[in-house]
Each structure stands twice: as structure tokens, then as C-alpha cells.
Amino acid sequence: MNILAIESSCDDTAAAVVRDGRTVLSSCVSSQIEMHTIYGGVVPEIASRKHVEAVSGLADLALERSGLAKKDLEAIAVTYAPGLIGAVLVGVNFAKGAALALDLPLIPVHHVRGHIAANYITHPDLEPPFVCLCVSGGTSAIVDVRSYTEMSILGGTRDDAAGECFDKVARVLGIGYPGGGPMDRLSEGGDDTRYELPRAHVHGADLDMSFSGLKTACLNLIHNAQQKGEQLDLPSFAASFGRAVSDTLVPRTMEAARQMGYGKVAVAGGVAANRRIRADLVKACQASGDRLFLPELTWCGDNAAMIGSQGYYEYLAGRRAGTDLNAFATRDISLG
Ligand code: KG4
User: Fold this and answer.
1) Does 163 sit in the ligand 1 pocket, CB within 6 Å?
2) In order of start, what are the domains of the chain with their CATH numbers?
3) For 157-191, how does the pLDDT look when each residue is reduced to its tens digit (9 = 90+)?
């Protein structure tokens, strides 16, 4: 089954053609990073306008690169939640129009379910059930993936997402936006014990997490150093920060894996590209005996191939939308 997928939930416009949920025939991403960099973060209104300019051309390009014709498409999948509402609406409206014009079924896809499905593209043998750590700019959650379309949150952040924390700290350091990649590279060769940073625990909710205290501690440390005219050891600071984030995410993921007993752990989202988190998960899974599934770096960040992959499984489960499909800024993953 050939699905044209559309993604526009944040600052990347993306279109892809995916066959049977696992084979990517084409994947095109148009990043707006350059545009938002001057503001140090995503400006929602600009994001929406850029999606409007890009979406139609990208869909054409994805179809052309797939080697298929419009008549070979069998469904349209689209991210309809969660995300910046104006941005998501652009993709949803384009997909509705395309489905109507081509007389194809329309499949609504939850963005975080898409991130999880990126693992199906990388690992042809991965099948639910498994536990998935979902970490991106807007999400930090440990998800119980019971089946391709039945999932629920086992634990999640009470405040900031891990990616948001990377981005804010990087912004104050002035090392670029989005900050996760630059922080990761900066940490190379740093001493991860040099700076003592807090790890928060949520009493009575062992799988939940919190990053706002870590963010504040980092910002205070940076500002104090600036006020005293002291130079921070940046690689060691970035390494200490990466370790604090990983120390929060990895043990909780492993505890969730222990509780569920599936023997399979996956990770998903932009922060899944982080080398420290990947390395710590490898070590933890070697110790526990769980099989670890890491998505290829290409599929960690936002893309439409992952939406096409999840869209296929949503389609098999009978999920369809009409022209009344709406976009949602927030939506529980268990609702699909
Ligand atoms: O999945 P994604 O592209 O967009 C959302 O759905 O949010 O994730 C973007 C997030 C940003 O916060 C970015 O800083 C972070 O992923 N990120 C990383 C790395 N690469 C991207 N965080 C840590 N280490 C990285 N290597």
C-alpha cells in the first residue's frame, strides 16, 4: 500500500511516500531553521506561513522522487496533533484537499506515534509490544506500545521536555538553535563530573520526570560565571548537562521496561539522536538483557516518512478521517 504522508507540526515541512509502513520510497524535508535562528526559537506565525509556501511543492517532489504517479497512491496520511496549531492546520488542510482531489482515504496520525514508528523503518523486525522513550522538543514520555495503535503513557515530564531544556541552555550559551545537536557535539572530550547539576524526582510517580529545575540550575550557573567574569569549561559543562539529562531518562525507561517485561526497548524523537543517551541505553540494555532499538539518525528528527509508516498501521486498524478533520495543539497519545 502506497501512502503519501504530510508533516508540518513545528518548523519542518515534510512529505514522503511510504510503502506498506516499512519501505520509504521518498522523503523530503524543508527546514525553516535558518528563518527562526535569528529569533532564537520557533515563531509560530512564521512557521505557518513557511509551511503554506512549501507544502504543495514538497508533496509533488516526494511523489516524483518515489517514482510513482498520483494514480499509484492509495491513501494520504497527515500529522493532525500535537504541535503548533497554525502549523499543523496547514498540513491537515493540504492533506484534506489532496485526499478529496485524488479520491483517497485520509488517515490522521498522532505526531509522537509517528516518532515511534520511525523505529519500524529502521528495524524491519521490530513489532509491538515494547517500551519506547519518546524525547523531542515538545515531548518527554515513556510509552507503553502494546500494539501498533494501542499505547499509553507510563511516565512523562511534569514541566519542560528534554529537547526544550537542551534548546534553552544552548540559547543562553549562544551556541545555536536548535541546541541539542550543538550541545551534543560540544560535550565531546568534556568531563561529565566537572559540574554538579540536579536530577529531579517526582515523589510517588517514579516514572515521571522534571527538567525545569535542571534548566534553572544551568541558567544560574552560566549567569553567575558571567557576572564573576569566569570562563566556563564548555565541553565539561555540556557533558555534565548531557549526563544529567540521560540520568533522568535512562533509569526510568529501564524501570518501565522491567515493569512491562516485554524485553524490548526503543527510543524516538529528535533527542534520540543524542550520543550520551544512546550510549547509556546501550549499556543499560546490555545489563538488563532487553533488546534495544535505536532509530537511524535520519529518522530521529521530524520527517514525513514516520507519519507514512504509522499511517499504514492506523489504516489497517480502520482509522479514517473526513473533511471535517481538525488539528489539535495537544492530544493524548492513547487517543491516537
Ligand atoms: O523530534 P524533533 O525534530 O521535533 C519535535 O517533534 O519536537 O526534536 C527536536 C529536538 C530539539 O529540541 C533539538 O534540540 C533536539 O531535538 N535534538 C537533540 C539532538 N539533536 C536534536 N537533543 C540532544 N542531542 C542531539 N543530538
Assistant:
1) yes
2) 2-115+299-335 (3.30.420.40), 126-297 (3.30.420.40)
3) 999 999 999 999 999 999 988 999 999 999 999 99
> Which helix (H) or strand (E) is 322 found in, with range?
none
Distances (CA, A) of 43 to 34, 86, 166, 182, 249: 12, 11, 18, 20, 28
SS3 264: strand
- 186-209 confidence digits (pLDDT tens): 999 999 999 999 999 999 999 999
* Closest residue to atom 22 of ligand 1, CA basis: 180
Q: What residue type is 172 in one-letter code?
A: V
271, 281, 303, best to mutate for ligand 1 pocket (most atoms within 8 Å of CB): 271
Helices (H) and strands (E) in the chain, counts: 10, 10
Which is the closest atom of ligand 1 to the Cα of 139? Answer: 7
Interior CA angle at 73 toward 67 and 79, to 5°? 105
Q: Angle 13-17-23 (CA atoms, 0-180°, nearest 5)? A: 125
